[in-house]
Structure to design on (950 residues):
């Protein structure tokens, strides 16, 4: 009875007080204190909390929901004007203080002093002022509860304001209140607020910071004087990047990190190579002087695109550092690095990402402007692409080439706003305060290692010499560069700080700089912790020697016997007990059983599945990704099957045998550019895994053209990076319109040179079986581009016999299949892909016995010798035809003519049969498509006068 009276009294107090508004933060803190120990709160609050809905203590933030709902309900009740004034004032002031604290957490980053140039406009934000919350000067020395403010439970308003301004409005601007996980927010609050700003570092640490800044500035000044006017994309203005990376490596080693993979564009790259990676100055000087040779053959690349790897000693042991090669396409290296990291993590069985960490260094304009950044963030927590968190460093020069961020570079307040899409904390920091930089670096790495999520450091700085050393920045940014012209460097400012503190002598900074110059003159590595290559302790390195210099045209035995096929099918056909399969999938499974027994012709889906199964049981992992790759866009693969009862997935290829290699099939996010780049990065790191990317339709690869142009087709020539990536690109003209017909075969053939890639157009199930197996069994590691079929997946003629898989291998050229008299043949049609079956059916229909049809299944490397020998059996040919479905300016015609002529008898003419020139890949009207298809088939077979197609 007494408790009920107390409760009613409490509810009346609630309804009549000014607590009916703005009470969330205060009540939340009060309730948390009650949960920890009810005795910590006053009796009337304890009585009230005792009556709230009971929740399971094991639940997380959701357990507060019914409590908050009751608070909101009570808060909506109108307050009584008759409440005691003194009590109302006390409670209201307390609530306002908590609101002020939260306002700083949310918005103080906007007024933080993070711009070393002092040009950034800092808005007036009333919510950060005590007066906005009804707090006056008379309240400054009153004591208040601080709620969840770290470090102190009760303090005067004056002390609270000092702590807030030091933490959130100094040289660090922290954005983290957008994070949805309360535990992560409180972790960050604790780390930021408990120190009341950057902590005081030890004398040893402060001297190391100065040493790293000296190295950063020393290299740039040395190069500036020695190689006047040469591009190097100087780090000057962003010198604090070097202490950041140094700390990530050293602290990473303490965390147990074994590998750090870095991706970055141009700015500061040479500095990172010398001062972080340990590249010798002598090597760099040779590159500046044009005397450096590229290892092996190839074109080589400019010095600020080159990668490097080394081993660095840390307090926690050696850490292997890899700086990825990359082109000028800025952020495109991001997903490449992520793919490389995932491969390294898989190799180490590092499922939590504790051993291998990716670090991506961005420019501010590119970070905000390049779509691949968003795609990479979108992959960061997905099953097939997560690397358990990336440390992002933005070298924020506050400008993009000549484009000012205030007006044109972006529509967001910060260049880093894109990172909020994955709830990443963002730590803006003034690049001229190296101790603040070191502080946020430690928080960033510790957050990544604790929560395995992305985190961003926004290093706000400037560039001293413009976009490049040949640029004249004052022409477009006069005010910015007037400020920069008279600005001391970060090293100079920090050196003076240490001098003023009595830590170093006034002449010490210049002595340090001279000692660094002497080391550069000597040409030796300037990284003291560098482990010599011959002493490298890196146990997980891949030996690429067996793959170097190998030819992809070397024949290998890819056949497997019928008994093994039967054994593989037995493993694939086992389903979990009670698993209910879809009726259509069940029919496919039954047909595959018959194919294994030789009772049914083999289709594409069966052959492809058996290629994977055989490789898995031979110890080769398989990684297959793409949009809808689990089932297959055209309902042919069914690598993942779903239980029709509860929707649970089952992957037969993961359950063939106990000792098989790993199979991973991923229905990727709706991305081509980042996903393909990720798979490229994976394949360049792991030659022992069959890595496949499948486009939903072949022309979707258009969105990833930069990956194809800069990495896949040219990576070996530029950087000696071998890669066995497979691209499956559905291709074929079935009247589906311009966007679902062509995989743009001509683009890949145009890129072919120096045996760089393989381009194949298999037309039978046995061919894809042998081709996929050949990609792994051959020691050559070249990218393989495959024009895969759509309608041929179930075409009655596009089938194989069981013997085609148990015998032979992949055929670069498939000769005539019908029994024709070679001497009677006066017309030979050369073709690739689906059009072959249109030609074959029409020839059989009209009973032409003097026309042979020969398929080219590998267009590059072109099989001239094989084709020449195939054609020699026809001595009386009068007409040679190249027939294709694609328009004349597309497809294989122009890129392959010289190979075709080289294979034909001397001076033999070659005619074209196909669609005329067209700007679009295909027509959009089905009736017109059918008309064109009939015409080109007839022209090729000589059933009507041939045209030029012009």
């Amino acid at each position: 009875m007494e408790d009920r009276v107390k409760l009613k009294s409490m509810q009346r107090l609630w309804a009549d007080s000014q607590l009916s508004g703005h009470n969330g933060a205060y009540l939340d803190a009060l309730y948390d204190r009650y949960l920890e120990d009810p005795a910590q709160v006053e009796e009337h609050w304890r009585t009230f909390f005792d009556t709230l809905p009971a929740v399971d203590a094991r639940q997380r933030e959701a357990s507060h929901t019914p409590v908050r709902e009751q608070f909101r309900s009570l808060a909506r009740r109108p307050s009584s004007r008759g409440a005691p004034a003194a009590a109302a004032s006390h409670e209201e002031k307390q609530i306002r203080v908590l609101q002020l604290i939260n306002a700083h957490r949310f918005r103080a980053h906007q007024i933080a002093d993070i711009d070393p140039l002092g040009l950034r406009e800092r808005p007036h934000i009333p919510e950060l002022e005590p007066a906005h919350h009804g707090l006056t000067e008379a309240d400054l020395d009153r004591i208040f509860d601080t709620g969840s403010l770290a470090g102190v439970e009760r303090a005067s308003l004056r002390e609270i304001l000092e702590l807030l301004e030091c933490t959130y409005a100094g040289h660090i601007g922290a954005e983290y209140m957008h994070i949805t996980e309360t535990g992560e927010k409180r972790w960050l609050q604790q780390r930021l607020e408990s120190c009341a700003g950057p902590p005081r570092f030890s004398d040893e640490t402060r001297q190391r910071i100065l040493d790293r800044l000296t190295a950063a500035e020393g290299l740039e000044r040395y190069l500036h004087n020695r190689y006047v006017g040469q591009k190097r994309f100087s780090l000057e203005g962003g010198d604090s990047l070097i202490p950041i990376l140094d700390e990530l490596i050293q602290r990473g080693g303490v965390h147990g990190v074994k590998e750090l993979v870095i991706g970055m564009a141009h700015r500061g790259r040479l500095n990172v190579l010398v001062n972080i990676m340990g590249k010798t100055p002598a090597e760099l000087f040779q590159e500046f002087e044009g005397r450096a040779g590229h290892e092996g053959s190839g074109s080589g690349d400019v010095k600020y695109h080159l990668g490097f790897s080394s081993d660095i000693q840390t307090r926690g042991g050696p850490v292997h550092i890899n700086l990825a090669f990359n082109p000028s396409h800025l952020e495109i290296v991001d997903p490449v690095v992520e793919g490389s990291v995932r491969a390294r993590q898989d190799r180490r069985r590092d499922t939590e990402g504790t051993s291998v960490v990716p670090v991506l260094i961005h420019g501010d304009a590119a970070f905000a402007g390049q779509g691949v950044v968003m795609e990479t963030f979108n992959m960061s927590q997905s099953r097939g692409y997560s690397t358990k968190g990336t440390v992002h460093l933005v070298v924020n020069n506050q400008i993009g080439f000549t484009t000012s961020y205030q007006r044109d570079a972006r529509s967001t307040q910060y260049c880093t706003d894109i990172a909020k899409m994955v709830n990443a904390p963002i730590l803006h920091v003034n690049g001229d305060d190296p101790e603040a930089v070191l502080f946020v670096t430690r928080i960033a790495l510790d957050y990544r290692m604790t929560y395995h999520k992305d985190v961003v450091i926004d290093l706000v700085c400037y560039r001293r010499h413009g976009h490049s050393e040949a640029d004249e920045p004052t022409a477009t940014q006069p005010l910015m560069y007037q400020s920069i012209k008279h600005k001391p460097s970060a090293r100079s400012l920090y050196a003076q700080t240490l001098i003023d503190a009595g830590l170093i002598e006034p002449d010490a900074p210049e002595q340090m700089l001279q000692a660094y110059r002497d080391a550069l003159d000597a040409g030796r590595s300037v990284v003291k912790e560098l482990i010599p290559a011959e002493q490298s302790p890196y146990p997980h390195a891949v030996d690429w020697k067996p793959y170097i210099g190998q030819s992809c045209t070397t024949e290998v035995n890819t056949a497997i016997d019928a008994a093994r096929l039967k054994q593989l099918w037995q493993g694939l056909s086992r389903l979990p007990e009670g698993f209910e399969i879809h009726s259509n999938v069940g029919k496919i499974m039954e047909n595959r059983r018959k194919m294994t027994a030789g009772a049914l012709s083999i289709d594409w889906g069966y052959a492809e599945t058996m290629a994977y199964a055989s490789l898995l049981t031979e110890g080769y992992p398989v990684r297959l990704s793409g949009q809808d790759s689990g089932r297959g866009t055209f309902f042919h693969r069914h690598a993942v099957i779903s239980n029709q009862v509860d929707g649970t997935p089952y992957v037969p290829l993961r359950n063939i045998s106990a000792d098989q290699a790993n199979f991973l099939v991923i229905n990727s996010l709706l991305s081509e550019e980042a996903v393909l780049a990720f798979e490229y990065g994976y394949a360049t790191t792991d030659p022992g895994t069959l890595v496949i990317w499948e486009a939903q339709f072949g022309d979707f690869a258009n969105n990833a053209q930069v990956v194809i142009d800069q990495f896949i087709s040219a990576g070996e020539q530029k950087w000696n990076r071998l890669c066995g990536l497979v691209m499956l690109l559905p291709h074929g003209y079935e009247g589906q319109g311009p966007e679902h017909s062509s995989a743009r075969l001509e683009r890949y053939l145009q890129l072919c040179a120096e045996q760089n890639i393989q381009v194949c157009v298999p037309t039978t199930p046995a061919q894809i079986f042998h081709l996929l197996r050949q990609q792994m069994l051959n020691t050559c590691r070249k990218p393989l581009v495959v024009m895969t079929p759509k309608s041929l997946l179930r075409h009655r003629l596009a089938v194989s016999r069981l013997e085609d898989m148990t015998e032979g291998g992949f055929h670069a050229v498939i000769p005539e299949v019908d029994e024709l008299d070679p001497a009677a043949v006066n017309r030979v049609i050369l073709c690739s892909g689906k059009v072959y079956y249109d030609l074959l059916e029409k020839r059989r229909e009209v009973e032409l016995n003097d026309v042979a049809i020969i398929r080219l299944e590998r267009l590059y490397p072109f099989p001239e010798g094989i084709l020449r020998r195939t054609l020699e059996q026809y001595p009386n040919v009068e007409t040679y035809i190249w027939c294709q479905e694609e328009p004349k300016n597309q497809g294989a015609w122009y890129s392959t003519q010289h190979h075709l002529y080289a294979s034909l008898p001397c001076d033999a003419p070659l005619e074209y049969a196909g669609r005329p020139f067209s700007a679009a890949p295909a027509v959009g009207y089905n009736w017109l498509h059918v008309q064109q298809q009939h015409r080109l088939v007839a022209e090729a077979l000589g059933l009507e006068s041939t045209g030029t197609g012009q």
About this structure: Residues 558 and 774 are 6 Å apart (CA to CA). Residues 203-226 form the longest helix (24 residues). Residues 813-941 form a domain with the Rossmann fold fold (CATH 3.40.50.11610). Confidence is low (pLDDT under 50) at residues 1-22, 55-63, 74-88, 945-950.
